[in-house]
Amino acid sequence: MAGDLFQDLPPPSAPQFQELQSSTAKETSSDPPPPPAPAHALKSALKRPKPASQEESKPEVPSSGKRLRFKTTTDASETQVIEAMQKIASHIKNSSKFGKASKLAIQLIQAGSVKPATSDYFFAILEGAMSSLTTCNEASLRADYHALFSAAQDVVECLSKKQKNLLSVWTIRAVLANDLFTDDSFVFSKASGRVKEVLSSLPVASKDDDEEEAAALDEIEVANAGQPITDNTSSSFTPEGKEEEPDPFGLHALIPSTSKKDDKAKGKGEAVIKNRKGEEEEEAKKFLRGQREALISCLEIAARRYKTPWCQTVIDILVKHAFDNISRFTSRQRDAIDKLWASIREQQIHRKQGKSVSGKLDANAFEWLQEKYANEKISIRHSVGGSGERRCEQWLG
User: Fold this and answer.
1) How much is the average pLDDT of 346-365?
2) Region Disordered: what ranges (predicted)?
3) Is the pLDDT of residue 381 over 80?
4) Fewer C-beta neighbours within 10 Å, C or N terminus of the chain?
5) 104, 187, 203: which is closest to 151 by C-alpha?
6) Which residues face 223 on adjacent strands?
């Protein structure tokens, strides 16, 4: 019956059927609607979705936090460092191998391998380098010596007092003296000023210094080690010269014999103290003698560069300062300074009297300015005239 009732009605249209179908789908399904199509196809095609974060792309790291690391340095043991220092010390005496050996020694300093435990082995490297006091000033080795002993200043605290004194003397020869060979006027002036400072710190030389210098030149080393003090407590003579009875009342058997032991121990202690003082005094004298000889070497190197025009004024001041402080040197060194000063003065006279290739007086900048302004008329007013002449009219308005 129901089918007969709807036979006369027309079939539903397509739009109405779609609306009916969509409404029924909404009621029966809970799925979300599909996303709308992008408005601009070209823009969406060029855009790419962002990749996942690096944390998602990386594999999971265990919670311990360990990471893969590459070792760029190797930690050498103390035994390996000592063996390396001994090997460097055996090769650094050879001039042909000095460049490579000195660079390896500098690497040990920069790596922090020079410590109080290894300082003696490192000092053996420096001692081997200065086995010849003239090699450090050779043209092919100056830069390497300068670099090595400049870097050695960073480990001075690890050395003993005796080693520090020797290093300071070697630094004068290897650093200051080599700076006097430079072509840089600033470096030359700075090194000259440093030489003057060290020279001014020297004490006045005495007759003992002259005698010790003569002994050192003759290669005779005077041993100042103190001899043990003799024990005079067992002497059987009184201050008046009378013989004393050994034990007139028989009391020595009742008194413990500790005085002789104490006196012997005291005598040994005094001998040790005397030996130490003698060694310290000897080291101080050696240090002063080394400083004086190194400074004389610097003065000679500077004097040989007097032909360079821009060095002349600095050398004049340096040698004059040494001549003014000549009492701080020994007799032989005083003779050397006298000869240097006489040579410098003679060259000054020749330079002022003679003429150079250009036909002008061969004078340095200081002397040229000194001669220029010696006869110059300078007015108290700034711009009064050409040479101080009052040719302008003054007026007050």
Assistant:
1) 64
2) 1-76, 221-281
3) no
4) C
5) 104
6) none
